[in-house]
Design a protein that fits this description.
The longest helix has 15 residues. The chain has eleven helices and eight strands. The chain has 288 residues and is an alpha/beta fold. The chain folds into two domains: 64 residues, no CATH class; 197 residues, Alpha/Beta hydrolase fold, catalytic domain (Rossmann fold, 3-Layer(aba) Sandwich). Strand 3, helix 4 and strand 4 form a beta-alpha-beta unit.
């Protein structure tokens, strides 16, 4: 049974000086504060690759490819030399090596791995990006290196996976881990963390819709889930402090052929390396 997050203090907090800067902008001009918040919202943090991911990094053949739809280049990892292929998609401020434990287990079970640093992430160029660029990257990788039997996404990568399938990406099965769901909820949470007034959430959404000429809610995971026909395993931790477990439950309800695995005490990132989770991923993949 789903329960509320028990470790809210572990959720990512926006530094005080950034929140203060945004408030000062809001005092001067609401439009200025929205632009400032939007810049922050679309700027991932590029973390140094941790030691635990270096084996995958060192043993991968890497190349840069262009994604014409967004006119940006991304770094690709080719890991393993088996015939069957799996595509791994990291989340916000992640890297193409972040799902290395899942990758190693898939290789042991006969798959080759392709992963990538999304725009403005890892070794890829740029400083800002949005989910639609994750999706465009997935679709371009499919054109150049597909077809894929399996696709796995974490967090924003999970939302991107469902959207990519809706847009034509084909695979036998999909797994999403710690995926977000409703875009407006994500925008509302960010505005709240920035300590701006609640009504600014609508302005925030309108800013993105005007800039990118798209409807933000069209990218909500549950909407794409309604269009996905292949089997999808939805994995989420009851104690995830960054994405509420209700997101997974809602996505699962909207899938035609979905399975739901809820865990306890693994949070948002530790879940990626948990052996029981990985065992369930392999079992899901191998089940007819």
């Amino acid at each position: 049974m789903a329960k509320k997050t028990t470790n809210p203090t572990k959720a990512l907090k926006i530094p005080y000086l950034i929140r203060l800067s945004c408030k000062i902008c809001a005092f001067i001009s609401i439009k200025l504060s929205i632009r400032y918040a939007a810049r922050l919202f679309t700027t991932p943090i590029k973390h140094k690759i941790p030691k635990r991911e270096l084996t995958m990094d060192h043993n991968s053949r890497q190349e840069i490819i262009m994604v014409p739809e967004i006119n940006k280049s991304i770094n690709i990892y080719h890991y393993g030399d088996n015939i069957k292929k799996a595509l791994l998609v990291h989340g916000w401020s992640g890297r193409g090596t972040q799902l290395f434990k899942i990758a190693d287990e898939l290789i042991s079970n006969g798959y080759s791995i392709i992963s990538f640093d999304a725009p403005a992430h890892g070794k890829s160029e740029g400083s800002t990006t949005i989910m639609s660029e994750f999706i465009s990257s997935i679709l371009e990788i499919d054109k150049q290196f597909g077809p894929f039997e399996i696709i796995i996404g974490h967090s924003l990568g999970g939302m991107s996976v469902l959207n990519a399938i809706r847009k034509g990406f084909q695979a036998d099965k999909a797994i999403i881990v710690g995926s977000g769901d409703i875009v407006q909820d994500i925008l509302d949470e960010f505005i709240s963390k920035m300590e701006l007034k609640k009504e600014n959430s609508t302005r925030f959404r309108n800013f993105f819709e005007d800039k990118y000429q798209l409807k933000m809610d069209d990218y909500s995971a549950y909407r794409s889930a309604k269009k996905v026909k292949i089997p999808v395993l939805v994995i989420h931790d009851n104690d995830d402090p960054e994405v509420p477990v209700t997101a997974a439950i809602h996505i699962h309800k909207n899938l035609e052929n979905g399975s739901l695995l809820l865990t306890d005490g693994l949070g948002h990132r530790k879940i990626l390396g948990n052996q029981n989770v990985i065992k369930n991923i392999i079992k899901f993949i191998e089940t007819d």
